[in-house]
Specification:
single chain; 180 residues; mainly beta; four-stranded antiparallel β-sheet; 18 strands
């Protein structure tokens, strides 16, 4: 028997990830859950007495970054708290760690921004100003891969210079709808 929000058969899973404590995190339309393999239990993550709704979780050092509707949260295995009072004015859709104290985030308008976690600031992305993304990934060589719905996939080097661009016009891609 699954706890709410996992009991709703009409839910949709947005994202899943694992952390260093062997928990599997599952983001659904109804809220965030985590499965603890040591305890063989599935638990709901609550914020203000309600299931925490989020689109992603991001392992970050020994903690977990969680996007909330209006802010970024950090979970350290004991408590959930805001990250340096960072206020987001949109729903975050994805994030990747790009430095010791910084992450790149993309929002529901596919705008990319840089978040300085230490200073608690949201600043301009190091990518070209018109660059957008639905999904962001780093490969084993540290290159940044972006997919923008309907535009294919782009690959950037460590200095955020465009290396490759693949879409239905210049490659064997069948369509340009690329999602994670």
């Amino acid at each position: 028997h699954f706890p709410a929000p996992m009991s709703n058969d009409r839910q949709y899973v947005f994202f899943q990830s694992a952390d260093q404590q062997n928990r599997i995190w599952i983001c659904t339309t109804e809220g965030l859950c985590h499965y603890d393999m040591r305890e063989a239990s599935l638990k709901v993550m609550n914020r203000n007495g309600k299931p925490l709704k989020t689109r992603f979780v991001l392992p970050y050092n020994d903690r977990l970054l969680i996007s909330a509707k209006d802010t970024l949260l950090v979970y350290d295995s004991k408590r959930l708290k805001e990250v340096n009072h960072i206020v987001m004015h949109c729903q975050l859709m994805a994030a990747i760690v790009i430095g010791k104290d910084s992450i790149l985030v993309t929002d529901n308008a596919q705008k990319i921004q840089l978040v300085d976690l230490k200073q608690g600031k949201v600043i301009k992305s190091p990518l070209p100003e018109d660059e957008k993304a639905f999904c962001m990934l780093r490969d084993s060589q540290g290159r940044l891969w972006l997919s923008h719905y309907g535009k294919g996939v782009k690959c950037f080097d460590h200095n955020y210079r465009l290396l490759h661009e693949y879409n239905s016009k210049n490659s064997a891609m069948y369509n340009d709808a690329v999602i994670q």
